[in-house]
Every structure is written in structure tokens, then in C-alpha cells.
Amino acid sequence: MTIRFSSHSRFRLAPRAGLTVIYRRYLNHDATKHTSAIPGSARLKTVDLSGLRSRELSETGALLRACEEDGFFYLDIRRVNNAQMIKDWMLIQSLMQPWFARPFHDKMRYHCGTFLHGYTPVGTYAGLLENSKDGNESIKITDVARRVDPPILPDLYLENRALLDRFMDGCRDITISLLSSLSDSLDLRESSRFEQSHRSYMPANTCLNLFNYPKSTRGGQFGQNKHTDNGSLTLLFANQQGLEILSPRTSSWDRVLPRDGHVVVNVGDTLRFLSGNRFHSSIHRAAPIFEPSQQGRLVAGFFLRAEDHCMIEDNEGSKMTARQWHDHKYDIYKSLHSIQRTSTVLTGGMEEHIDNAKRSQSAAIETREG
């Protein structure tokens, strides 16, 4: 679906009849056969959520392989709950654009000086270029913050609470379905099941982050530096390209193209650690917008994170809680590139893992040829 921006600061949707036609096209158009054929685009697997919840072997197997091999995949959500998530995402976009178009000082009223909730301005974290800063601003809505009475969140949430709560609850249901399927595939029992580390009533940093990537930013601030996500599973809703993943096979940056009716899902560090490094957490980044015809980019990311006190063992063998890993990783996100390079935390040890795998493969080839 294409959402058009007016020349005014307010965001306008097409009339309801027109929006219905666009929505039906969005729901019925099947892009799954085309995106992987575009040069420079990532060839990701597709999992059908409806089939997965019905325990269809083709879908449970596809999910397991996607987590083991790529760490990123497309999730088809068109046949679930009358596509309510798709409808809600369209509505959320109509709220985001005018909110982010506000004067800077107005948005900063909701800046809490923490990475846990509230507004985050452009230039908070590391950007793509050496010593540059990122080019996105965001509103973060955590489960914890929305349960406080009254919620300590921006007015965008307070004035649209029913919509955003429904969207977040739907995202949580999706991620728990994915974890449950993975637990079944690995024959995990009782407390060792992945979903048992993600109970909704336990404190965690699970959140919805609403991102705005402006077309141009001041001072050369653009993009977002390479990283892996610190949590368990991420759901990304976007109608425009900008996400790029590092191919472990070619070491090239491949574009993840948006698909109508699909969500992009990726595995984070915590789930990789909980799986004993069986799953793959892919290195990715946000590319800047250079095309003259392209508007600023709106993205919604739902980040499922393990319970604060869930114990994990990182890539270096250090044991810590999921909350400690989360906080440490955010400190690294904000650091200069020179500091980021001194640690494996930024990419969760995946760069070293890929390098070791390539060396092992080369050694095996040399042994066979010798």
C-alpha cells in the first residue's frame, strides 16, 4: 500500500471508500514471488502465520530453518484475525506523520532521558559513517510504562490507547506463537520452553517503537549503524525499503524489501543465547533515504524481550540477566564507533561467529583438496 503525504503538515488518508479499495489491493496482492528476484535484495524464507498456528509441518519446519539459517524471515499475516494487524498498522501510520511533524521543542516534552520509554530525538545513537549519529527519531511504548496509572507516555499513545494496546497485544500474541512453535520443534519441555522466559505478567523491556526516518537530517546524521537486536524476536512493519542485512555467505549488504501483508521478523541476541547459539541473529542496519521521489520512512518495531531476571550466557561465556544485556547493549549503541569496535556486544558476537565459520569452511576445503 502507498500512503500519500499532502503538502500540508497534517497527514490525510484517502476517503473511506478509496481507502477500502487500497486496503483490498494491499491484502490480496501477492509479492512473495517477486522480491527475492530483484538484484541486491535478500532471499528470505516466508512463514505463513495461519498455517503455523494450525501446526502445519511445512510452516513449523520453515520457521525453524529460518531461525537457524538466516535469522530473518517474512511472516504472512493476511489470513489471521481478518488481517486486523494490517488495518491497525495503516491507522497507526496516519497518526505518526503529524506527530513527528511537530516542532522539536514540542516533541522534546516527552523526552525522558532514558532509553526505556518516551521520545528519542535524531542523533542519539551511532550512525552509518565513522563518528556520525543516527538519522531517526522514535516514540517508545513499553509494556511497563503503559501499565502505570496514568501511563507515563506521549499523548500519541494516551489519545489512541485502544488502538495501540490492541496492536501491541496482537504483536505479543504473534511472537509467543513463534516461540511456542520453536519450542515444539526442539522438543523443549516445561521451564526450558522459550515462551516460559517471556511471560506477560513478569517485568521485561518488551516495547513498541515507532520510528520516523526523515528524508534529510541536519549535520550528516542518517541511517543506523550495523547491529544485532538485543532481545528475542522483532516484528518490523514498514511500507518502504531501508532495512539491510549482512549476508553471511557473500558479506554483502542485501536490501530487505517490504511485502504487502507481511511482517519482517528477526531473531535477537537473547533468543540466540537461549537456543544455545543454534539460532542465527543477523547483523543489520538502516540505510539512508537518497531517492528524490521517496518520502521519509515510517516504521513500527515490536521488540519482544525476555523477562528482566532471565539468565543468559553471551557469546563470550559471561552469564548475566536479560535486563543487564539490554542495558549494556544500549550503552554500546550510543558509543562512538571507535569504542564499539573494541567490543563484541554491538553485533552480539555474530561477526566473530561468521568469521570463524568461514575459516572452518576454508580449512575443510583445503583438507579435502590436499
TrEMBL record:
Belongs to the iron/ascorbate-dependent oxidoreductase family. Residues 203-306 form the Fe2OG dioxygenase domain. It comes from Lentithecium fluviatile CBS 122367. It comes from the Eukaryota. PANTHER family: 2-OXOGLUTARATE (2OG) AND FE(II)-DEPENDENT OXYGENASE SUPERFAMILY PROTEIN-RELATED (PTHR47990). One of its GO terms (molecular function) is metal ion binding. This is 2OG-Fe(II) oxygenase family oxidoreductase. Keywords: Iron, Metal-binding, Oxidoreductase. SUPFAM superfamilies: Clavaminate synthase-like (SSF51197). InterPro entries: IPNS-like_FE2OG_OXY, IPNS-like_sf, Iron_ascorbate_oxido_reductase, Oxoglu/Fe-dep_dioxygenase_dom.
